[in-house]
Write a sequence for this structure.
């Protein structure tokens, strides 16, 4: 076997670490993308009964975006197993308690309901901000592209570039905006 072929062989069977930035991303659409890397669906050796998936680190999960009024209307169900132990929690309540839980539940639901789903979820690492342990960041070799580009805020643009933007109206210096 040639050296090139050995490299390809190793790359196929190696467990790769990916990072995904969830800022301004819909967690339910992103879950299908994350699932592809967690389960190893992109690898040529994929088999449903084979553990060939990779590790995925999701950062900035507190910055997710749900469309419309989904924060007030989406409900999550939980049952303790005891009589009368059913609870329904709104998305904004769940997100304020634990900012990582919505992304975790979305990825869990996106996967097939097999027995391997729980073991596959152990390779998903979710962080509410971009503070990731250095041991994990040393392993990362790939960045998953975001589905939606993050818009640039006006206060993030330097003052020199803001002055170059053409103005439609030049207010007098003594004018008071209401």
């Amino acid at each position: 076997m040639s050296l090139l072929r050995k490299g390809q062989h190793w790359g196929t069977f190696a467990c790769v670490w990916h990072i995904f930035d969830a800022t301004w991303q819909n967690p339910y659409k992103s879950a299908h993308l994350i699932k592809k890397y967690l389960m190893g669906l992109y690898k040529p050796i994929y088999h449903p009964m084979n553990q060939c998936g990779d590790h995925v680190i999701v950062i900035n999960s507190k910055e997710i975006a749900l469309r419309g009024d989904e924060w007030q209307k989406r409900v999550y169900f939980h049952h303790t197993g005891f009589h009368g132990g059913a609870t329904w929690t709104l998305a904004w309540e769940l997100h304020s308690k634990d900012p990582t839980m919505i992304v975790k539940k979305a990825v869990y639901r996106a996967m097939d309901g097999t027995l391997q789903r729980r073991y596959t979820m152990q390779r998903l690492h979710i962080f509410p901000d971009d503070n990731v342990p250095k041991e994990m960041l040393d392993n990362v070799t790939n960045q998953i592209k975001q589905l939606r580009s993050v818009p640039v805020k006006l206060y993030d643009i330097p003052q020199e570039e803001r002055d170059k933007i053409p103005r439609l109206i030049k207010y007098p210096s003594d004018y008071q905006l209401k």
Q: What stands out?
A: The radius of gyration is 22 Å.
